[in-house]
Amino acid sequence: MDYFLVSFFLIQYIRTSLQTATQHPEWDKRLVIGRYTSIALVAVFYATETPHWFNWIWNAFLVLIIVVIFTDDFFKTLRATAQTILPFIGLCMIRDATRALSPDFYKKYDSGFDIAVAFAFVLCFFIWFYARKQMKVLQKEREDRLREEQASKAQKESLEYLVSERTYELTLQKEELQKTIEELKSTQNQLIQSEKMASLGELTAGIAHEIQNPLNFVNNFSEVSVELCQELEEEIDKSALGDSDKEYIKEIIADLSQNQQKITHHGKRADSIVKGMLQHSRASSGQKEPVEINSLADEYMRLAYHGLRAKDKEFNAALVTDFDPTIGKINVLPQDLGRVFLNLFTNAFYAVADKKRKLIEEGNLGDYRPEVKISTKKFANKLYIRVTDNGTGMPEHVKAKIFQPFFTTKPTGQGTGLGLSMSYDIITNGHGGVLDVESVPGERTEFRITIPINETQEA
Amino acid sequence: MKILVVDDEEDVKSLFEQKFRKEIRSGQFQFSFSFSGEEALSYLQAHPSEVVMILSDINMPGMSGIELLRKIRTDHPAAPPQVMMITAYGDSANHDQAMQLGADDFLTKPVNFVELKEKLLSIL
Lengths: 459, 124
What we know:
Chain A is of the alpha+beta class.
């Protein structure tokens, strides 16, 4: 009976501790066979009425199990536990050998042998029990470690998630900051630009004032000199000089008078430039009043067109209007805004005429059709005006300077270089708006006016 | 008619003398010149009740034309001369102030002498 218990529980112990049922099905099959073998053996043992020789079959069976355990590396971890049944097998075999070889000696000491075997048997189970307990502790520790690992893994994952989330946030913030920096830079550029314009405007006005006084004298004195020449001529006639002398003197006087007229003419020219410059300094030429923007723009477009037509009969251009009919009346400085329109249209017409002239010179006119377009739009309390032409356009270095006073690309005498600088002043300072320009050299130019509309003042 | 011209630019004198040559020769106009506000006041004190018309610049070093106008209107309430202000700065602030202080007319530079002559003749 003790053989059965030892073999049965040893096999069972191997199965549970190595978890062969799930991990190693081929070994499990063999172990199950071993288990049934031990059950079969115990059944045969009792069926054959417990013969003594049967112990040797048991001994062989147990030795087989031990040999298998100690020869196969699969059972390496169990060898220490399996060793515990060695004393049991050894004692059983000594007992059985003694019983077979000297039955007398065995009879004399059979109770001693039985006690020793029983002791070895108990020792087996005691050690197994102890090992089991130890293993349970180990198992528990292992499970704890596993759980800890899992917990730390989860923590790590959550940390990683947090980190990636933070990184994303930081990236967003960085992008936002970069955008802000760019905006700041462009604002700074605009500020520098408008500051430059303002100081240039002031300087221009200051110079104009200083020049105007001496220029007035030049003009006045040359005018009065012309009058004096006429008087002189009259006096010569009264005198008693000879005719040839009179003629000669009159010739000189005529030259003198002509020179004075030239001085007056150029003085007047300078005067008109100075007047243009002075318009810069005038804070405002009047009161803001409700004006039909569309009709104002249209009026000045035609004015500029016919102004150019009067000088150049050949000139023609398509006038395209795209007016927003919902604009109605808006509070502006009508004369100043009119001047802006006039400047923008004059420039636009000049650009298309210039392009046409250049194309004709190249003999490459093709189907070029000069076109100047005005479009207006009211949107979100702002008035947008675009003046577009398909003329010569301008390169970047010209574009950078066009709002500076005295900058002009026109030939001497055709432009003062004050038109756009004044327009800039009127839009930014007079109306609190924005005037900017976009151009593709050789193709087109677009001036864009943006004026904020104050609803409460709107008529 | 005696006219006092007040301007810090000395060339104004020869300009007026040439521009109004005929009128001066015929004795219609009689011009005197002062080159500062202070000088104009002392001239007025030295020649009381002679000057009929004063043409004054506004922007002058020292006493300005506006100051001069105020002094004339307070110191010479009797036999007040006509005062015409002339300025390069045709802004409304100067204009309003001059008118408020009792200026009779307001001209901007460059002076239109044809217009000025007509005005002076009409006063005469």
